[in-house]
Amino acid sequence: MPVAVDLTGVAFGYRPGQRVLEDVDLQLSEGEFVAVAGPNGGGKTTLVRIVLGLERPSEGKALLYGEPAHRFSRRRTLGYLAQRSILGGDAPATVREVVSAGRLAAGGLIGPMRRRDRELVAEAIERVGLAEHADAPVRTLSGGMQQRAFIAKALAGEPSLLVLDEPTTGVDAESQESLAVLLDRLHSDLGVTIVYVSHEFGAVEHFVQRLVLVRRTIVFDGSPSELPGVWHDPSHVHA
Amino acid sequence: MLESEFMRLALGAGAVVGVLAPAVGFFLVQRRQSLTGDGIGHVAFAGVAAGILLDVAPVLTALVFAVVGGIAIELLRSRGGAAGDQALALVFYTGIALGVVLVSSAGALNVDLFQYLFGSILTVTRADLVIIAALGAVGLATVGLLYRPLAGVVLDEEGARVAGVPIGALNVAVATLAAVTVALSMRVVGILLVAALMVLPVSAAGRIAWSMRSTLVLSMVIGLGSALAGLTVSYYADLPPGGTIVLVAAAAFGACALAGALRGR
């Protein structure tokens, strides 16, 4: 499988002398469904920001599909659901309006949306099961449904790499489970590479092929079934 | 009222600004930069002063200063040189201080300043109206063409950045649009009240709208209604037009807030 993400010897600190990440080596192949877990403050979000080229490593190299991540030329192929995704602005944006924003980079910036873009938006809304709520303001939906709307936004751009940073924050256990099932289905149907970042990985454990635990560096990288029993307890990672 | 040419010209200028100011202000309000219009207005005051000092049309110098000030606020904010409110304060105070110094140097502290500070829509000429209408049309066309990316950045700036949307250029476009709007609105409501027409109709529309797009359209309708109703009231009640327009917009906000609250019950 071609490599989608390639981090070699990556180190990063927001201030001199304070390393958030060090000595990180990570290769993700195209089409993988990977969970990146670890304690809060362990460097997961920083790792994701380096993968997406939003931060440049102070040491080592970060490649996306073979190109330096910060100069990646095919950004429209990236889908990103940021940590604690909340809608900007006060206007009551509908699900369709939010998801349409996901077609910006791929569908062109100027003027009204083309028919093909509108169809892809409707398709993405359908995929996440929000067709009946397409014209409802997002803020009137439950936390789980709002996250589905954001995932549909990322999907509308037809990404080859989908990164979700703490997508289950503020979402009840039942919605977490159905979100995991949805992601598994998207992975199977679309073949998209998915990086699921969370401080705990229980919801997706049965679906991901690979689990990466980060605590300043990578402390585990393998199948969830190979994980020592005690590590299934998130409190172990915190310790 | 319509028999008087000065009122026809005033209603024309008011209509353009009444539609344009909320259309541009919509993006500032959604980005929680409601006071940016005020900041740009203070820089425009320095531009008016420079115009008086240099004996150049103050509206033109105000336009140039406003564009530079708007872009400066955006660059300071986005490049991390200063937090958003500090960037605004820096430009705000520098603008007003520069204006005071320049006006004083020109020996014009008492001359013509009131018409820029509080508006002078009743003195709009045909030539003024042509300029206001032309720049207003360009501004509205730009908002129409860039609506989707500007709205997309409002909704999720980080997601748009990852996907390669040119955030910096779009932010500068908003700042420039805001500056042009401020320069045009100066004649209608004055520098001191210019931001009100960019913010109040948008806030009012947000109380009763059902989508992002409907918020934008309703805010333009409320802005237009406020400008025309305010001018009409000021004509018959002999009140200052700028202040009356803004008070009508404030009343519209009250009415929409009440309607929104009743609907939410």
Radius of gyration of chain A: 18 Å
Largest sheet of chain B: none
Q: What is the CA–CA distance across the termini of chain B?
A: 42 Å
Sheet/helix structural class of chain A: alpha/beta
- H and E order of chain A: EEEHEEEHHHHEHEEEH
- The amount of beta strand of chain B, in percent, is under 5%
Written description of the protein model:
Chain A has helices spanning 44-51, 95-101, 104-107, 115-127, 143-156, 173-190, 234-238; strands at residues 3-12, 21-29, 33-37, 59-64, 67-68, 78-81, 161-165, 193-198, 210-215, 217-222. With 239 residues, chain A is an alpha/beta fold. Chain A has one domain (3-238): Rossmann fold, CATH 3.40.50.300. The longest helix of chain A is centred in the last third of the chain and has 18 residues, at 173-190. Chain A is globular, with a radius of gyration of 18 Å. With 265 residues, chain B is mainly α. Chain B has one domain (5-192): ABC transporter involved in vitamin B12 uptake, BtuC (Orthogonal Bundle), CATH 1.10.3470.10. Helix content of chain B is 82%, strand content 0%. Chain B is built from 11 helices and no strands. Chain B has helices at 5-30, 36-54, 58-78, 84-105, 113-118, 126-155, 157-162, 167-189, 194-208, 212-237, 241-264. The longest helix of chain B is centred in the middle third of the chain and has 30 residues, at 126-155. The relative contact order of chain B is 0.18. At the A-B interface, strand 6, helix 2, helix 3 and helix 5 of A face helix 1, helix 6, helix 7 and helix 10 of B.
